[in-house]
Amino acid sequence: MRVEQLPRKSAPLLPQHKNDAEQPIVIIVDDDAAVREALSELILSAGFRSVDFASTQEVLDADILDSPGCLILDVRMPGASGLHLQHHLAQNGNLKPIIFLTGHGDIPMTVQAMKAGAVDFLTKPVRDQTLLDAVIAGIELDVARRAEAVVVKRNLERLETLTHREREILREVARGRLNKQIAFDLSISEVTVKLHRANVMRKMGTGSIGELIRAWETLPTAMREAGGSKF
Asked: What's the whole-model pTM score?
């Protein structure tokens, strides 16, 4: 693969990790060995770890797709295509950022990939800095998503500690209802509402109504629509 040499940006200051298992990995999937080698050298020169595969099936068999990082994925390969892998990951809830790199792209293919959430759709030959910019964007996106997932998991665990009544209070507070309105709707006293609300804030680890509402909004849409009940 021909790569145009340009001044390269230094790798971004990503969060430091205690062990290699948490370090972002750029997964390269291309059936052309020369392309894989060139891409690996480029990624390593920018200070990132990389691993490469010749087919989408090899990636699935390697059990590496849950690791932090992003994918550089060819579109057309023997067996399942890069677009098929993107679809497979989406169906399984894996939102790993994907950068498509192909010598056979067209507009419909590009639109399909981008609508499905690809970070970028690049055509060979590609400038090294253009590809590195996409990789940096992909890794930063993955870091942000993983941090968000940690917050969601924490709030779900805290939600599990609430009683049924406390979940009702939480839902009504998140709707912007006043204590006296909640008391009327639930046929309880306003003092009781205040006590439940204080317990909710303590169990959810929030120090203000604003923080409580933000915690509520991190919960899955289906759960919020169900009023915080299990689904």
From this structure: 0.77
